[in-house]
Amino acid sequence: MSSIISRILELKQKRDAIIVAHNYQLPEVQDIADYVGDSLGLAQTAAKTKAEIILFCGVHFMAETASIICDDKIVLMPDPYAGCPLANMITPRQLRELKKQYPDAIVVTYINSSAEIKAQSDYCCTSSNAVKVVRALPENKKIIFVPDRHLGNYILSQTGRDMVIWNGYCPTHQRILSEEVKKKKELYPSAKVVVHPECTSEVIALSDKVSSTSGILTYCKESQGKTFIIGTEIGILHRLRKENPDKVFIPASDLSDCPNMKLNNLEKILWSLEDMVYRITVPDEIATSAKGAIQRMLEIK
Ligand code: 13P
User: Fold this and answer.
1) What are the chain's domains?
2) What is the distance in A from the centroid of ligand 1 to the CA of 10?
3) Which residue owns the Cα nearest ligand 1 atom 8?
4) In angstroms, what is the span from residue 171 Cα to ligand 1's centroid?
5) Each residue's pLDDT tens digit, 206-222
6) How many CA atoms lie within 13 A of 78 on its CB side?
């Protein structure tokens, strides 16, 4: 074991910390984490941990969500600059204006959003429960969905609900082009195409399965197929290959690499535990309203 890893493990125990990592993190970060998963799994893990400190290896909105749910814990991020461009595509003022335009609508907000946006929302959702959350809402109600247009359009295609969809997108998923997927399908005709709902509707139309990152992992593990074309951020390939050594995984695009997700590394994790930085906090009044939207999501079974 490298000395940096043994120092991380030692400090982790001394500080009573848990390390959680998103499925897109660098392989070496995933390998030292206590839990690796999708946004919903990470929020649920944070909600039930008994550890004093949650060292969150992901992007800012994920750590912020953990800090909102676990207001009695210390939430640290190894690199505070690991943001999410999609989360920044709507401002609190823009959402206030949209709500004024549709005063009777229910606001459903993707978890890839700031705490201020969640605080103005009725429900939060993740890629793994978005369709379920929208289906649980009264059928006669208009739904404002922010900030991801691709996930919004996917929900619309599955539910047929009356939706106003904000025009945001994830630049990393936007880089996955349907032309590339078609070319890969020609090269690997027996491959299953498995994609994230942040992909464009053209890419989704070519897929066999649309799922959250953890859903993609479960599908590929349980499938009888041997070859898979994966339409999401390429960090997921580490777990896919590690957990399925006899299967072949081909990225739909080599360019779908999220620069923010790759900002965390082992050195920064060690410094984070040594210096107890960078602490993620949310002002009380914002956290209380945002927590309501997250809890209403977690209560939908
Ligand atoms: P998941 O919740 O599916 O892991 O998605 C998180 C994300 O940010 C996708 O880009």
Assistant:
1) 2-82+261-282 (3.40.50.10800), 87-169+287-299 (3.40.50.10800), 176-251 (3.40.50.10800)
2) 30
3) 112
4) 13
5) 999 999 999 999 999 99
6) 25
